[in-house]
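Sample entry (327 residues):
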Amino acid sequence: MLKILYAGSPDAAACTLEILLENSKSCGFEVAGVLTNPPSSQGRHKELIPTPVQALAESKGIPVFTPDHLDVACREQISPIGAEVLVCFAYGHIFGPKFLGLFPKGGMNLHPSLLPKYRGCTPVPQAILNRDKETAVTIQTLGLGMDEGNILAQTVVALDGTETAASLLDLSARTGAELICNLLKSCSENGELPEGKPQSGEPSYTGIITKADGKIDWNQSAEAIEAKLRAYTPEPGIWTCEENGNTLKILKASVLNPQVTKASVNVEQWESEPCGKVLAFVKSVGIFIKTGNGILCVTELQRQGKKVMAYKDFMNGAGKFLGTVLI
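Predicted structure, serialized as tokens:
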């Protein structure tokens, strides 16, 4: 039975791990251990919360390793489990040569992009932000460079412009798990992983997304703002400021199409209005906000310190909101 060490931390990585565990026997491998980030302190009482991957592994009785650093002490802990292959998805650390040397049959990494496009830590939001027509789920060999390994398997995914980062990451986790299972089954039968094929094309890179990146620029088009909303759902979300300086989060919105809307709308009357102005409240449609090109129709939002509200409920208690300019 082929032994693997699985490295990952967030919900998506836990989803992939669960599928691997469900198929491990039929594919001839065993998850001998899990490598994940240390528990993080959350909430008012700073309670230590394990990663979703740790929680799942412990519920299955799988040994869990949560080192702060992949140093000699970490290698000494992991070596005795005898893992032959390292499988990684969203662990967030680059593996050094000594650590990779623990795995005689090599390692593989699930990367949700059409490599070499969007190397780095945020490929899913970037594909949505750029309004790409397709992306991919790629399994690559683990090497010393960031996402530079050979491609072992790849499934192209068509994008229809409705995806959020959450939904696309979930799809990637499930699709990637199937590809990994097939590769591990082949490795179990043949005794080794394939070499894969080198990446071709000009690489591009993604970086860390912060809360500040979610600030809305109303001079952008409605399409760009709506894409940012989907790319940053659920985290970090998008936001703007009201005239009093308070933060206003936009949680659901769409680009207004006057031809298909339920209400008769004459958008030409608003051509001279400033970007960010709250133009209208149409009960059957939503709240209209002027952008650099087009109108954003908002249907769910949240004022600073308040609960999330549907647009009708929001407007019931926000009579002075109409006509203000968001900044």
